[in-house]
Amino acid sequence: MNAPETPRGQGGATGSTDGDDPAGPSGARGATGPAAAGDLGDLGEFLRTRRARLQPEDVGLVAYGTRRRVPGLRREELAQLAGVSITYYTRLEQGQSRNVSDEVLDAVARALRLDADEHAHLRNLARPARAARGRPAERSERVRPAVRQLIGAMTDVPAVVVGRRNEVLAWNPLGHALVAGPLAPAAPDRPADRPNLSRLLFLDPRTRALYPQWETEARAQVAFLRLAAGRHPNDRRLAELIGELSMKSAEFAALWSGHPVHDCLFGTKELRHPMVGGLTLAFEALPLPEAAGHRMLLYSAAPGSSAEAGLRLLAAGAAGAADRTTANDRVVANDLVAMDDLVVTDDRQGAVGPVTG
User: Fold this and answer.
1) Domain 145-314, CATH 3.30.450.180 — does that match?
2) pTM of the model
3) Which fold has domain 13-132?
4) Residue pLDDT, tens place only, 207-250
């Protein structure tokens, strides 16, 4: 394991020239094309975006002169704050330091003022092999029967179970009615074309209209996908999803290039539902045990609020739709049975009827 190289010292002054390449050490590689979007371990991009959001005065450094070719901190300034040499930090940003120690990563995280999600993301990007170790192989993700039973019992609570790529694995009738009413209720049961909440948000106009604060929701979705990309660097289908969204949505590509990282596990969502109008809902994203990346999304309204009344109305409509679906299924089943009986009767009549010549 590489140890951090000799610190440069803790002086507070910086020079007036800038040795950083604005495009980074790999050249001007964008983040909007499919190749870049599929590059899930882009450590250099992450570090550069985090350097760019800090100014020398933000971290107690004095900047002499005004000519700075890059926004934010220079590499040498960040290396000084982290207590490592500029050579060592440059190698780290270029992805050439494969055995970087926890101490160095922690020092860089402190210098960049990373939060807990960003710190964990930094470690995953710096050690993609370790991030991938112990992750289950790609397969069709499934929901345990007990989880289906649980969300089915929540008749008054919208519940949606999503996988690590934000694909819908299961939902109860109210969850379906809330987030994707126009889609077929059985859509999550088809692994080949399951609804994906991120794809719907960026590419489906009906889903976009559901969120009056769409920009906030979009940033949260991209930040979650960035975390997922760091946690699952070898996930081919995740890379394909990111590439698709980058090619089809300029807004996604712009957000992705900023490298937001955040795991939003609870909060408030504002929705403008086409059936019941405006809703202000609290939500919780509960990780499910024994399922890597699976989460149960639950929504609730404050007691006595207009949102609570809206959810009750939506639940009544969802229950009615479910009853109609069940009735239709019974009619179809009865028709199939009747057709089978008719075929059997015809066969018997053909066997015993008179032969004419």
Assistant:
1) yes
2) 0.74
3) 434 Repressor (Amino-terminal Domain) (1.10.260)
4) 999 999 999 999 999 999 999 999 888 899 999 999 999 999 99
